């Protein structure tokens, strides 16, 4: 496998991110033989995810090499950093040269604010579709969306599907299938409530109230 | 929600664990209003997962309160710690009083080595079924298995399904559905290769070679 093209992948971190948004793609890409993963933030100080796990970045914006894949996720803390000029400048700089500019869940908002998604189709978390559209992005209610070199996953758990689609694009379908099998990605959700369409209006409204009340997520 | 029964959940960490095994359940349980999550290891020193992410535990074996739910995952590094007497003593001590004694993926082997699974049915990663059976456990090739107060998920990504089943058991079906919707768990695997049965013998054999060669996982 030593003659495989190597890819440098950057996973952007920040306080209040959703761990699974990043850990989904990380698990898939980390199982490929030719990826070098960087977990990137302004500093190497530990950051807390929105479910309370503490992760230590290994790369800063400043010392990050040119990325082949840049990926940013969403999270309850995203509102506090989504307009941060340092973050947006990093995304713009890396995005201009990357082979794939990608997001999972609300991470699409970062790319849009950096001017990287206008004129492209993108997925996002279902609660964030409206605000992404208001940023001039063509929002697609799909699990994984590819538009030229932009690739995006829908909400949280879509990062696994996204990761496998990206793995197939970078390393071929056969390797992606092997990784899917090794991750035993044969999902069996206990309920049929994973999308607003399947959940129905009542559950959607309950979920919005729950998000606002319990999770303090301001949904517009 | 303040009158809801509170649950204390312990997620056991160790060097070389698979992050997603733990982050799957963490993401579901962390979205519930009445869970207190602890990420537990011998010390508070940062640990590296088998895909290279550095996580900082927040609780040690010594200062961990009595747990209502104890959960342990698998990982490429598990062979180095699965016989560690301190780990097994911790699991035995917490397991004797916990409401649910649980595992995801190869984490079932820890529970079996601690004597907590003999006489029970349990799921595990498909490559680990044989060695779990050799420890006297009734191995079930199911995604999520409940046997009295033991609850287990299959390989890696099964931790999300497991988390939702556990959420329903602790907080009711309606809350679990809301969380499923907020995590947008409406999976769309790009290939139908997520289980050995679906993947077929050729891909299974390729995956075993890949695991042994690329991931250095000794499969027996």
Automatic annotation (TrEMBL), chains A, B:
<feature type="domain" description="DJ-1/PfpI">
    <location>
        <begin position="12"/>
        <end position="167"/>
    </location>
</feature>
<dbReference type="InterPro" id="IPR052158">
    <property type="entry name" value="INH-QAR"/>
</dbReference>
<dbReference type="Pfam" id="PF01965">
    <property type="entry name" value="DJ-1_PfpI"/>
</dbReference>
<dbReference type="InterPro" id="IPR029062">
    <property type="entry name" value="Class_I_gatase-like"/>
</dbReference>
<protein>
    <submittedName>
        <fullName>Gll0294 protein</fullName>
    </submittedName>
</protein>
<dbReference type="GO" id="GO:0006355">
    <property type="term" value="P:regulation of DNA-templated transcription"/>
</dbReference>
<dbReference type="InterPro" id="IPR002818">
    <property type="entry name" value="DJ-1/PfpI"/>
</dbReference>
């Amino acid at each position: 496998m030593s003659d495989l093209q190597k890819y440098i992948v950057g996973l952007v971190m920040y306080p209040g991110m959703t761990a699974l948004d990043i850990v989904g793609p990380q698990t898939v890409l980390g199982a490929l033989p030719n990826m070098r993963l960087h977990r990137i933030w302004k500093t190497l100080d530990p950051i807390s995810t929105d479910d309370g796990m503490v992760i230590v970045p290994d790369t800063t914006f400043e010392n990050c090499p040119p990325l082949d894949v840049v990926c940013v996720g969403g999270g309850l803390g995203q509102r506090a950093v989504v307009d941060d000029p340092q973050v947006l400048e990093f995304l713009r700089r890396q995005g201009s040269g990357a082979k794939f500019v990608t997001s999972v869940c609300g991470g699409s908002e970062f790319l849009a604010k950096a001017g990287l998604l206008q004129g492209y189709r993108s997925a996002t978390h279902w609660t964030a579709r409206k605000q992404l559209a208001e940023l001039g992005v063509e929002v697609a209610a799909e699990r994984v969306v590819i538009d030229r070199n932009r690739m995006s996953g829908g909400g949280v758990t879509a990062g696994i599907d996204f990761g496998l689609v990206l793995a197939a694009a970078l390393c071929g379908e056969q390797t992606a299938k092997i990784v899917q099998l090794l991750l035993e990605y044969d999902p069996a959700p206990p309920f049929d409530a994973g999308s607003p369409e399947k959940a129905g209006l009542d559950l959607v409204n309950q979920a919005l109230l729950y998000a606002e009340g319990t999770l303090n997520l301001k949904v517009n």
